[in-house]
């Protein structure tokens, strides 16, 4: 299926050239890690260690307290030296475990099981749950929950999201290039857990080498197909990806499983393979450190809990004109006020922008009713009305314009000639009204 896509969307410069040819490299062992007990959507974890306790890599430091939750594990071996509230990239303070690394790299348990595919769907799902795997594209939704659809919503398709449409980021691209077979095996595990025989890998066609490599890898898999997608943001959003690859439309306020689909990220598929084969918990992930403000853009394999300041140092530090550091990409990421913030399971990238790429505004102008945000909204919403109502304090009225269908892709803010903070105003309304 060539150049499949969806209605709406935008075409920001992709800036992938800064890091796309950089192989994934392991980071230097961090002296200490700060591991938040909230790294996922859902219930926070319950503290499972105490100050002074010795831990190994893979030891559980936080246990889930609900079905929609995921355990948290130590990414290093060492001693717990502190427990307290530390900031996430969003600025939210959460209970975290600080572990001093003894550099012994001791694992609590890790065992190769080459016959993992012979395990039952329930056994494989249990491995995913126990490994603490969450969506690694940024949403951080517990993977085992997605793999447990209710009986009244049967799933017949699994889609791997290889679009990586967010500008600058290349973590998933490098995984497809360097760990191709593990991506495919992860998809096959997902298909077995869900009992489906149709798998798709959606990749934007600005990644021809990844498309070719993945097509070769699945050439002997009649139930798996690689779909070439048009280069357009936000092609990688779940609902857009489903529309582009198989032509199904998720209803308003609906979920992919409402149309018989489960979507997972490329990085998540690799983590699922590692959990099934080795029993390895999610304690590290690929992070793209990039941008015109960093001296040496890289794709790094980073231990969860590593501080952003360590990654900046690993990449040679800032250029003299570095002005802003963003966790994630420029469209949906969060500008950070401190570098003493840990990498979490959902940290896909660290972006450093120079002063020349930052637009400073003294306030923002009124909506001029140009309709550009309406034309490009991939969800068919009226972002202009949502922002105006929120700006005026009419928060309840925003629900009449399908407030909660917005997934905050930022396309509207990108095209607004008045430089209105449309997404921020929508987030404000969401925080003040009930769904």
TrEMBL record:
Binding site for [4Fe-4S] cluster 1: 367, 370, 373, 416
Segments of this protein annotated with the region Disordered: 1-23
Class in the EC hierarchy, top level: translocase
Sequence intervals crossing the membrane: none
GO biological process, one term: electron transport chain
Biased composition (Basic and acidic residues): 12-23
Cofactor requirements of the protein: [4Fe-4S] cluster
Membrane topology recorded in Swiss-Prot or TrEMBL: Peripheral membrane protein
Annotated localization: Cell membrane
Keyword terms, alphabetized: 4Fe-4S, Cell membrane, Electron transport, Iron, Iron-sulfur, Membrane, Metal-binding, Repeat, Translocase, Transport
Binding site residues for [4Fe-4S] cluster 2: 377, 406, 409, 412
GO-annotated cellular components: plasma membrane
Sequence ranges assigned to domain 4Fe-4S ferredoxin-type in this UniProt record: 357-388, 395-426
Any GO MF annotation of the entry: metal ion binding
Details of cofactor binding: Binds 2 [4Fe-4S] clusters per subunit.
The enzyme's E.C. designation: 7.-.-.-
Quaternary structure note: The complex is composed of six subunits: RnfA, RnfB, RnfC, RnfD, RnfE and RnfG.
Sequence similarity: Belongs to the 4Fe4S bacterial-type ferredoxin family. RnfC subfamily.
Function summary: Part of a membrane-bound complex that couples electron transfer with translocation of ions across the membrane.
Protein name: Ion-translocating oxidoreductase complex subunit C
